[in-house]
Amino acid sequence: MSPVTKLPFSLALKSVLAVSPRVEADSTRFVREHTSVPVPEIFDVVESASGNGLPGGYIVMSWIDGEPLGDWIGHHLFEPPETKAALDQLDAAMISGDSTALTEAIARAQTMPHPVFDVSSVTQIGDDFRRAFAELRSIPPPDSDAVSALGGRPLNIIRCTVIPRQFGPFQSQQAFKAAILSQVSLDSAHLLPDLRRIAEPVHAKRHRIVFTHADLHPGNILVKDGRLAGIIDWERAGWYPEYWEYTMIEYHMINRRLLQQFWDAVEPFGADVYRDELALEWALWTTTGDKAIPNPSADELICPRLVEGAGQHGNKYNVLRSSTSHRVAVPGTL
User: Fold this and answer.
1) Does one domain contain both 188 and 261?
2) What is the pTM of this model?
3) Which of 40, 91, 138, 249 sits most deeply, having the most CB atoms within 10 A of its CB?
4) Which SS3 state, helix, strand or coil, does residue 29 take?
């Protein structure tokens, strides 16, 4: 996420690196013009190449009040009484500085039931998400099969790579799917026969091409008063196969148990959808580029989210609490 500075008069200044700011500005304006999805209003765009010659610049836009989705989820947890007592003990041990008491408190806390997301709090925001995605996916694409950013530009993706890169554009979804498969790392080449088998049902299906944000991690979603207040950072948006939003949401909640519980409760695209597509993407995440998933078994391609009891499979959650009694999730767990 690029740096954003709050300005007077409810304005925001965003510094954009490594890509033209017009990419995000154009996508944000497009969504604002074609839907009621809450996005910033764009007032000005300034292009300014960086010292290394890469594109960049600034966007002046409206400021949206709200807290990131990850923070909001952290404020809507249910803690079993025994867990609360164990965390109270941990707080007291941390304040006292008694190393023996702290060791005992940590050991006790690790045996306690995990806090869980309070699913009763998603009624309104769940409706907001389903409405937003329905609107985005109802916009007619300029080409029923091409995969690209707005105006036929290359896609700006960050999947399976630390540094965003341009990808495409593609004249057909088959070309896009083939290109995704071709990104498999050399050290995973021996798994290509298995990957091609997993890819068969996805490559055989013609998906709708829909407008997609493609980077919906919790920091890009703002919540206020239990409602969807804004979706920001549209620089990776474009025309993708319909499953891409779903699988990229999954990508951003790997090993984030509470975030999985939230999206499982919302079901923004309906229940039990895109199973073949998620199975393929998971297998590719373990074998592509910088490898988004540190897979415990090099040859294990089965997505744990598709296994019975999915949401709880193999995910770890740690909770700390400050002396002010405000619970915080350890980074990477929400």
Assistant:
1) yes
2) 0.85
3) 40
4) helix
